[in-house]
Amino acid sequence: MGTSPSAAARTARATRFLRCDDGAAAAELAVALPAAIAVLGLCLGALTLGATQLALADAAADAARALARGDDAALAHARVAQVDPAATFSVSEGELICVTAVAPARIAGRELGVSLEASACALGEGR
To answer: What are phi and psi for residue 91, nearest 5 degrees?
Structure first.
């Protein structure tokens, strides 16, 4: 009882099919591409948060200098609000005028539930 030709042919076809690499690159790309896009999105989000933190630090420094010169608090608020309309700031006065600006952390318009904070001080010249 040998193997019938049709059974041998089916075995040969099955063996060729299992060894075939046709479409493997497409399947690997289909798996890897969403992961690569997710990593790229996270990197861009981190860059956005870093840029917002730097802008907030600059705004706090500008607000501290403006208040130290004796400018109106509305000018300081406007500078901080340029970074984010929801940003707030607090002022502590003494020999130094210190401003602490706080803004919600956002990526693609969505709040992350944490805040970015920056502080800056200037010597009180105009007070």
So the answer is: -125, 135
- Are the C-beta atoms of 114 and 105 separated by less than 8 Å? yes
Half-sphere exposure of 7 (CA within 13 A, CB side): 4
pLDDT at 50: 95
Q: What is the pLDDT of residue 4?
A: 58
CA distance 79 to 55: 10
Phi, psi of 21 (to 5 degrees): -105, 10
Instruction: Say if CB 33 and CB 93 are below 8 A apart.
Output: no
Tokens describing residue 103: 């803004």
Cα-flanking dihedrals φ and ψ of residue 35, to 5°?
A: -65, -40
Q: In the block, which residue shows the tokens 């003494």?
A: 94
Q: What is the pLDDT of residues 62-78, one digit of tens each?
A: 999 999 998 889 999 99
CA distance 2 to 13: 18
Could you tell me if 90 and 30 are in contact, meaning their C-beta atoms sit under 8 angstroms apart?
no
- The C-alpha atoms of residue 77 and residue 79 are separated, in whole angstroms, by 5
- Tell whether the model's pLDDT for residue 127 goes beyond 60: no
